[in-house]
């Protein structure tokens, strides 16, 4: 059997991925009528319906659901092939990462990567949004979550542990922090963070009376860390991200008790691109350096 027209296959893949003809049309720069026409052509070629046309949406039929994953994989292989060809002229590695990981772990170490791979330039995109590798420009990503993501190679970097930290000056303001109860004498940054209750339960304190405004939200750990360094209060932070500040005595971790979150940090990239040289170079570099982390 000869292949159906590539345009029809491309339209089907986009419509199956979105579950919506209108969104597929927007992605491909077509009208919805043109999308419907291409789907009809493909269905005639296959000899079976690929979508159920419902009043305000479409859904894949059993045959369509069996066909869709293979089409997505095929286009990923094509994208990877063209990306590999581009790389010899571009030499650019695009990394998408959550802000805290970028600010506290990755950026301070990128000089090492540049020294090992001087022909590669790095573009860093710091965002909380989860990048869709099939639609957005990115080679690798750093994500935080509890589970792995379908279609992506996922390397676990480390677990999101947490423990109280504060500046030496703030600790000295009450004669030092010797017991967990001493923390309750100090202002707490982001007291609504659920990590606080988990940690205090670990040290035998139920429903701690935290000093601070429950409405306060600093958002990212690296921002909370800056506030802690400035002596504004006690933060509940992940030690991996503040190793340098702890070693230099800018921050104090008064207790060895560390809580563990359900989510972890991951290095991810599309399965079809696992052998692209620049991705392989970054993966090997990062996994080599992550050995510094004690988990």
Automatic annotation (TrEMBL):
<dbReference type="InterPro" id="IPR036388">
    <property type="entry name" value="WH-like_DNA-bd_sf"/>
</dbReference>
<dbReference type="InterPro" id="IPR036390">
    <property type="entry name" value="WH_DNA-bd_sf"/>
</dbReference>
<dbReference type="InterPro" id="IPR000847">
    <property type="entry name" value="LysR_HTH_N"/>
</dbReference>
<protein>
    <submittedName>
        <fullName>LysR family glycine cleavage system transcriptional activator</fullName>
    </submittedName>
</protein>
<dbReference type="GO" id="GO:0043565">
    <property type="term" value="F:sequence-specific DNA binding"/>
</dbReference>
<keyword id="KW-0804">Transcription</keyword>
<dbReference type="Pfam" id="PF00126">
    <property type="entry name" value="HTH_1"/>
</dbReference>
<comment type="similarity">
    <text>Belongs to the LysR transcriptional regulatory family.</text>
</comment>
<dbReference type="GO" id="GO:0006351">
    <property type="term" value="P:DNA-templated transcription"/>
</dbReference>
<dbReference type="InterPro" id="IPR058163">
    <property type="entry name" value="LysR-type_TF_proteobact-type"/>
</dbReference>
<keyword id="KW-0238">DNA-binding</keyword>
<dbReference type="Pfam" id="PF03466">
    <property type="entry name" value="LysR_substrate"/>
</dbReference>
<keyword id="KW-0805">Transcription regulation</keyword>
<feature type="domain" description="HTH lysR-type">
    <location>
        <begin position="4"/>
        <end position="61"/>
    </location>
</feature>
<dbReference type="InterPro" id="IPR005119">
    <property type="entry name" value="LysR_subst-bd"/>
</dbReference>
<dbReference type="GO" id="GO:0003700">
    <property type="term" value="F:DNA-binding transcription factor activity"/>
</dbReference>
